[in-house]
Design brief:
alpha/beta; Growth Hormone, Chain: A; Rossmann fold; nine-stranded mixed beta sheet; four-stranded antiparallel beta sheet; 13 strands; 45% helix; thermospermine synthase activity; SAM-dependent_MTases_sf; transferase; membrane
Length: 557
C-alpha cells in the first residue's frame, strides 16, 4: 500500500475556503470577547453567550449548507465570503452604538449580552457555516466519510490557527478595528481566489466595493458618542481594553470601559476618588505605624494607592499587577516611578503570594476585571494565603464593589463572610451615603482585635498619617447578615450569581471636593438606565419624590 507524501498534497479551492472559514470564525469568536467586554464585562455569562451564539449559528449554517449542497460551487462560496466580509464592516463601524442600545434592554444580568452577541456575530458565523458542507460536496475525495473527515480536519486546523493567532499575536499588537479589517481583507482575498483564473466582473466589482467599505468603516471607527472626554491613549492588552482619557484637568484610566483610577493633572497628590482615602485605615489598626515596613498592593491600575503609600510613609511598596501594559500606562500617564521603595511585579496576585518568602505588614487587594474581582482572589484559600503572608499584627484590606445592604449586597456579604473565615477580626466601611452599588472597604486584622469608632478616632488624633480620617471612620458598617450567602471556596464561588443581584442598581463612585455625586449604572449590573441617563443624586429637599435607591443618613458630602 502506498502512502502519499505530505509534499504531494495540493490544497484545492474548497480546501482553502474551509481553512479560511475556520480561521475567521474562531478569530471572530475570540475578538467578540474584546468587543463585548467593555459594555457587559467578561464573566462566565458573557462568554457563555458568545460560545452559544457561535455554535448555534455554525450549526444552522451547516444544516442549511447541507440541504443546499447539491448547488454548491466555488462561485457560491465566493459570495458567502463576500457577504461575511461585508458584515464584518458593519461590526467594526456599528458595534459600539449597538452595544449601548442592547445594554438598555431590561434583561437579567446573565442574559444581558446575548442580544448584542446575536446581532453582531450570528449572521457572519451563520454564513461561514455554509462553507464546510459546500466544500465536502465539491471535494475530490472518494466517499462521504473521507470527504467529511478531510473538511473537518481542515476547518479545525483553521480554527486552531485563528484562535492562536488572534489571542497571542493580533490582540496584543493591533486594535479591534484593525483586526476586523484584517479578517475582512482575508475573506475578500479568499473570495477573489475562488473565482480565479477567470475573474468574473460581478464578484470582482463586489470585492472592490466591500474592501472599500471595510477601509471606510475602520477609518471612521465605531459610531458612538464618547461622553468621557479626550482619548489620550488606547490599546488592546493581552487581558483587556486599556484607555487613558482626559476630561478637563482630570485623567482617568479605563479598563474594559470601567473607571479604575483617576489623577488630578494640576494636583497629582489629590485623591480624586474618595475610596482611595480608605486605604489608609489599616494604618490606624497596626500597633505602631512607624514599624510598618513592607506593604503589598495586589492590582495596580493607575497606582494611586501604591504611590500614595510611598509618598506618605517610610515603607517599601510591592505591587503585583498581572498586566504589564497597565503598569506601563501608569508610568507613561500617571507619574509612576519605580524606585528602591516601589517595586512592580508582573504577576498574578495569588501566584505572587504563593512564591514570595516575604512577610508584609499590610496587604491591599484592589484587583479588578471591569467591576469584578477575579474569582480566584475572592476565595477563602486566597484569604488564608494572604493571612499567612502577614506579620502578626498585619492588616488586610479588600476593595469590594457592591451594595452595603439590601438588594445588590449579596457579593459584599459573601466576601465579608469569606474574609472573616480567614482572619481573626473583620470590619467594613462604606464610601458613600447612597444605598446603591459602591466601593466598600473590608478591613481584617490577623490578630484578634475589637476596635470601636472611638478607638480609631482617638488614634486618628494621635497619629500623624498625613490625612484626617474622621469621615472615613464614621462610615463604618455593622457586621452584615451572612446566613444566606456562602463562604467562597475553590469548589464553590458563584461570584457572577451573587453580583447578579445588583440589577437596577447604580454604581456610585464618590469624588473628593464635590457637594453632590452623580451615580452611573453599575457595569456589573445591566438595567434599564445607562450612562447617558444617569440619575443625579437627590438632595434632602426632594429625595422622597424620586424613586430608586436613596441615601442612608445624611446627604453625600
Amino acid at each position: 500500500m502506498s502512502v502519499r507524501q505530505p509534499s504531494a498534497y495540493r490544497p484545492t479551492k474548497p480546501d482553502i475556503a474551509v481553512f479560511v472559514s475556520g480561521v475567521t470564525s474562531m478569530g471572530l469568536e475570540i475578538l467578540a470577547g474584546r468587543i463585548i467586554a467593555p459594555q457587559f464585562g467578561s464573566s462566565i455569562y458573557t462568554w457563555g453567550s458568545i460560545i452559544t451564539v457561535f455554535l448555534t449559528a455554525l450549526s444552522l449554517g451547516y444544516w442549511q449548507g447541507g440541504k443546499q449542497a447539491g448547488e454548491a460551487s466555488n462561485r457560491r462560496m465566493c459570495w458567502l465570503m463576500l457577504g461575511t466580509a461585508g458584515y464584518v464592516a458593519i461590526v467594526v463601524y456599528g458595534s459600539d452604538q449597538l452595544l449601548l442600545s442592547a445594554s438598555a434592554l431590561p434583561l437579567p444580568a446573565r442574559y444581558a449580552s446575548l442580544p448584542a452577541v446575536l446581532v453582531l456575530f450570528g449572521p457572519p458565523t451563520y454564513l461561514l457555516g455554509f462553507i464546510s458542507p459546500y466544500a465536502a460536496e465539491l471535494s475530490a475525495k472518494e466517499g462521504t466519510g473521507e470527504a467529511s473527515g478531510h473538511v473537518y480536519a481542515l476547518g479545525t486546523i483553521g480554527s486552531i490557527v485563528g484562535a492562536g493567532a488572534t489571542t497571542y499575536f493580533l490582540i496584543p499588537a493591533l486594535g479591534i478595528d484593525a483586526i476586523g479589517l484584517l479578517f475582512g481583507f482575508v475573506l475578500v482575498g479568499t473570495a477573489l481566489a475562488l473565482t480565479l483564473p477567470t475573474l468574473a466582473p460581478t464578484p470582482a466589482a463586489a470585492s472592490v466595493a466591500i474592501a472599500l467599505v471595510l477601509v471606510v468603516a475602520a477609518g471612521i471607527g465605531p459610531v458612538a458618542f464618547d461622553h468621557r472626554g479626550d482619548v489620550v491613549y488606547q490599546t488592546q492588552t493581552a487581558y483587556q481594553e486599556l484607555e487613558v482619557i482626559d476630561n478637563g484637568d482630570e485623567r482617568t484610566l479605563y479598563l474594559d470601559g470601567a473607571r479604575h483610577s483617576a489623577m488630578d493633572l494640576d494636583d497629582p497628590e489629590r485623591h480624586v476618588f474618595e475610596y482611595t482615602r480608605y486605604f489608609h485605615i489599616p494604618m490606624l489598626m497596626v500597633d505602631d505605624p512607624a514599624e510598618v515596613e513592607n506593604v503589598l498592593f495586589i492590582g495596580g491600575g493607575g497606582y494611586t494607592g501604591p504611590k500614595d503609600y510611598e509618598r506618605t510613609y517610610d515603607v517599601d511598596v510591592d505591587v503585583a499587577e498581572l498586566d504589564p501594559e497597565v503598569s506601563q500606562a501608569a508610568k507613561d500617564y500617571f507619574r509612576l516611578e519605580e524606585s528602591e521603595n516601589m517595586t512592580v511585579h508582573t504577576k498574578d496576585g495569588r501566584q505572587f503570594l504563593r512564591e514570595t518568602d516575604k512577610n508584609y505588614d499590610m496587604i491591599v487587594l484592589d484587583a479588578y476585571q471591569k467591576d469584578q474581582v477575579p474569582v480566584h482572589l475572592t476565595q477563602v484559600g486566597f484569604m488564608e494565603l494572604a493571612a499567612d503572608r502577614l506579620t502578626d499584627d498585619g492588616v488586610f484590606l479588600a476593595n469590594v464593589i457592591s451594595a452595603p445592604s439590601g438588594a445588590g449586597s449579596d457579593f459584599y456579604r459573601a466576601q465579608y463572610k469569606t474574609i472573616d473565615e480567614a482572619f481573626a477580626s473583620t470590619y467594613s466601611y462604606r464610601t458613600s451615603d447612597w444605598g446603591s452599588v459602591q466601593n466598600i472597604e473590608v478591613v481584617a486584622t490577623k490578630a484578634d482585635t475589637d476596635f470601636t469608632e472611638a478607638d480609631l478616632a482617638e488614634r486618628n488624633e494621635r497619629r500623624d498619617l498625613g490625612l484626617d480620617l474622621r469621615t472615613e471612620i464614621d462610615a463604618s458598617l455593622d457586621p452584615p447578615k451572612t446566613d444566606d450567602v456562602p463562604v467562597l471556596t475553590a469548589d464553590h464561588a458563584p461570584v457572577e450569581n451573587l453580583q447578579a443581584s445588583t440589577i437596577g442598581q447604580e454604581y456610585v463612585i464618590e469624588r473628593t471636593g464635590e457637594e453632590e455625586t452623580t451615580p452611573e449604572p453599575a457595569s456589573i449590573a445591566v438595567g434599564s438606565e445607562r450612562y447617558d441617563r444617569a440619575r443625579p443624586a437627590p438632595t434632602l429637599e426632594f429625595e422622597s419624590s424620586i424613586p430608586g435607591p436613596r441615601p442612608l443618613g445624611s446627604a453625600p458630602a
